[in-house]
Amino acid sequence: MSRYEEIETFVRVVDAGSITTAAEQMHIAKSAVSRRLKELEARLGVQLLQRSSRKQILTNTGQALYQRSVTLLADWAEAEAAASMARIELAGKLRLSAPLSFGIAHLSPAIIEFMKMHPDVDLDVDFTDRFVDLIEEGFDLAVRIGQLAESSLIAKQLATISTVVVASPEYLQRNGIPEKPEDLVHHKECVYGHRRISAWRYTKPDGSEAQVELKPRMFTTNGEFLRDVVLAGEGILKIPRFIVYKNLQEGSLIEILSDYGWDELPMHVVYPPTRHLSSRVRAFVDFLDDRFKGTPYWEH
Fold first, then answer.
1. Nearest CA-CA partner of 6 in 56, 58, 42, 55
2. What are phi and psi of 157, to 5 degrees?
3. What is the b/e burial string over 35-44, where b = at least 16 CB atoms within 10 angstroms of the residue's CB?
4. pLDDT for 212-231, tens place per residue?
5. Strand pairing partners for 93?
6. What predicted TM-score, i.e. pTM, was given to this entire model?
């Protein structure tokens, strides 16, 4: 067993939080991971991890070794990349997580273009609306829409996504067009998520803020399904513009109350902090930044 493999395994176990998770991420047997840790501790003559049935804790010696090891592995990876850059393009696996609706509608074409540009990069893409722990689950980066929670992740804002209030021509003909947000109390909302109280905050033309509460017509966690329900004339919807921009262009949905300001959602790409960002991640972040910088096409 090489010293590199021992150190790499040790760092992966610490990052993953458990031997089992590390083994899954490395695609090797759990027993192999345990053996590498034991051999490393035996060779150094120290205990690096205090293990129990529920958790593992780094010893002081283990913490010091972990910090140095992360730097050493990053330096080694960069040295290998520099040595091979002259003979190959970007190569290796890139694991990405992104929101389902945005991913399918707008990231898919971008990912396909990136794959054509870099045929030696293998993509592992998870389109999901659940929160993904990048470090624990072994992802390289994620695209996230909305305000970011406090974390150690590095974040780069790609764009700002506007929110619009829409309804179908049929619904508005049947129920009337709201002239001001207060009129929405007489309408029913199709709700994203499972909020039992649906209060919409908005900004008036004079800059002051207020809110209005609507009656829920239905609840769902999928933006495309919400759009289809509203297209069928079953309610009013507040939704990111990127989901309905084509419907607004063709007139199958009508934007209402456009003189008022609704939510604006930042879109970021996030990735774990490291001294040396891998060339694959750096290239993909730069690619997304170039593709979505300025005013995104769905906002025009």
1. 42
2. -75, 130
3. ebbeebbeee
4. 888 888 888 888 899 999 99
5. 122
6. 0.65
